[in-house]
Write a structure and sequence with these properties.
mainly beta, Pnp Oxidase, Chain A, seven-stranded antiparallel beta sheet, 12% helix, 41% strand, globular, Flavin_Rdtase-like_dom, oxidoreductase, Split_barrel_FMN-bd, NADH-FMN oxidoreductase RutF, flavin reductase (DIM6/NTAB) family
Length: 166
């Protein structure tokens, strides 16, 4: 990994902290248990084929579980789901888990969170190492948007809501 002077790294982080992002939970089955993580680095890639990507730290517990072909759910969180974002953002300790998290029956083949304003089922297509993270490309197998609710946003290291449209 290339080292940078502290001020460049800090400036880099500060710049991207100002880029408002929707908040998602990427989830998958590990045996009979749901696992996952909070991600703000989710984006559409292609319409043909339908493809999305997310980025994930190579040092995270979830990274070790990812493999091509793994079904994943991507839940675009509602503004009222901050607690789920915070929960999936931390490491799960021994005896903890997400078994009590309500899943949506609307999307099959991948665990997506109930109440999310957008839900995507996908399969991991490719994992591309890039520095201390990986870019994970996924082929979409199902997608559904809710007509209700506003997204949970993350900007300047804090959660936010939409206030109005321009």
């Amino acid at each position: 990994m290339t080292e940078h002077p502290h001020d460049i790294t800090r400036g880099f982080k500060d710049v991207f902290s100002r880029l408002a992002s929707g908040v998602c939970v990427v989830s998958f089955w590990r045996g009979d248990s749901i696992h996952g993580f909070t991600a703000t680095s989710v984006t559409s890639v292609s319409l043909a084929p339908l493809r999305v990507l997310f980025c994930l730290s190579r040092g995270s517990d979830s990274h070790a579980c990812l493999r091509p072909g793994l079904p994943v759910g991507i839940s675009v969180l509602h503004a009222e789901q901050q607690i789920l974002s915070e929960r999936f953002a931390r490491r799960v300790g021994e005896g903890e888990g997400y078994g009590d998290v309500p899943l949506s029956p609307a999307i099959r083949h991948a665990p997506v969170l109930d109440g999310a304003i957008g839900q995507i089922a996908a399969r991991v297509a490719q994992i591309i190492p890039s520095g201390d993270h990986s870019i994970v490309l996924c082929d979409v197998t199902d997608a559904q948007a809710s007509s209700d609710g506003e997204p949970l946003l993350y900007c300047k290291r804090n959660y936010h809501r939409l206030h109005h449209s321009l």
